[in-house]
Amino acid sequence: MANRYFVSKMLLSLLAVVGTAAQAQDTPSVATSEPYRIQPGDVLTVSVWKEPDLQGDVLVRPDGGLSFPLVGEVAAERMTMAQLQQEMSTRLRKYLPEPSVTIALKQLGGNRIYVLGKVNRPGEFTFSKPLDVMQAISMAGGMTPYAAANDIKILRRKPSGSQDAVPFRYGEVERGQSLPQNIILNSGDTVVVP
Question: What is the pLDDT of residues 17-30, one digit of tens each?
């Protein structure tokens, strides 16, 4: 009888552990993503609460700057919405006691990459979240059968104007090797598939 009680107790403990493990596997993990960074060509809607003259759409110029009444010039490129909102609020405090600035992305125009060469759909692609090389090739419909998959280059322009060619070996990444070469692309990068 004591033996049967011990076995029952063990089975209940085991079921509890299995149930907890199964529940933990079913619980989705929350992925943290990088906040969107403003790029030249983006159109932002800016509004200051209770200030009808301080509302409107603002284009981020090719140099990465924008202009807004009372705020002046702001170098907005690569800022997050929260950073730009804070910067504009700080500048407006000279004129308004407690400015409440709201900024929204009206039109995505700046985050563009280019995929060309031996892919099924070469062209320009707009993206709103971080994008790596494998994802860019997928957006371009994958490679054609004659592509030199291990000779891919990512052309990246430096702020100085010069250009780097970053090598990418598709076959290695496809096999799960050399994964650090599957870099996150920057706006303006060109993926060349020979």
Answer: 444 444 444 434 34
